[in-house]
Amino acid sequence: GATEEGVLDILGNVWEWTSSPFEAYPRHKNKTLTLKKGRNSRRLDLLVPFDANSKVTMGGSFTNPYQAARIPTRRGAEKDQSTNALGFRCAASTRRGLDISRWVVDDDIRGSKQSEEGYQYELTAALDKWTWRQGTAKETWDREVGSQMEDAENPLEAYSVITGYDYILFTPVANVLASSVKELQKKTVDGEPEQLGVFSTTVPIMDPPLAAGSYIIAWRGDGIPRKNRDDKDDEDSESEAQADEEDEATIWDPKVQNIVIYSADGEPLVALPDIPLKYERLRDGEITVESVPANEKKGVVAHDAMRMVLATTAERRSFHFELNFKLAPGTISESWRK
Predict the structure, then answer these.
(1) Which of 268, 252, 313 is nearest to 112 (CA)?
(2) Which pLDDT band holds residue 1 (cuts at 50, 70, 90)?
(3) In the structure, what pLDDT confidence band is assigned to residue 2 with cuts at 50, 70 and 90?
(4) Burial letters for 91-122: b for 16+ Cβ neighbours within 10 Å, e otherwise?
(5) Which residues are paired to 320 by β-bridges?
(6) Alpha-helical runs (H) found in 223-281
(7) pLDDT tens-digit profile of 230-271?
């Protein structure tokens, strides 16, 4: 049968893997049962072999009596255990992008020189799309005749096979160490651009040109580094020339605020000028997409305009900023979750 949420076959069939360690619930107490009475009685200690290195499997399987086919039924299984009565269910968090954001950070970002920050996965802003096909099963045995028959693909009602997953997401860092835009501006001018989070996509971005992949999003305030200002105040023309060269070596315009996009390995790729930060109360990020038709007179090519209003937490409030990207027309269809 199905649960109230429409989940099928949650009991029986096979034990289902979970990601939870096999540990006791809070306030759990081992119990002792007394079987029979009098001289023939015996005590049975119900000691559960909890082991945090094992994972919880639940629901019972076809090898168990029906009494075990209950949602509260749990047991531990070694991580490398494999039996014909043990399986898993494909599932996803209800919040878009929450699951894949952890994979993106662990697989694409960890280990790069830009990845020292922690991340707030629960604040991920995302669009995503699942693709699937009808589930089928092969019938190779004719029960009535009792003989082998030709393979046939039969559709399975309420079963699908996942064939793909696309997403566009931004996951903010856990905490920007600044309590105002002015403080962050000074910090980034005299230091490095401040990482705000991770941007990842499975579809290419048309403008700015970014291939499918994962990127670091950082911000730099407007201003000339103190070191360069001191050099330019020096009457030595050689020092002044050297300071000018250092300014020109960066990909951003130091006179304006910039969003700087780095590769996952920390190489600066693109600077988006004139993107200010706002220091406000925390709000969830939001991504909207609008289809823009071509306009030859205005030199506009057809595209999907994606507007990302994003946030990353700071010491007391949060920094908010906006990104505007262009995608190929028709990239974000109605089948995407928005």
Answers:
(1) 268
(2) low
(3) confident
(4) eeeeebbbbbbeebbeebbeebebbebebbbe
(5) 278, 311
(6) 226-233, 237-248
(7) 555 555 555 555 545 555 568 999 999 999 999 999 999 999
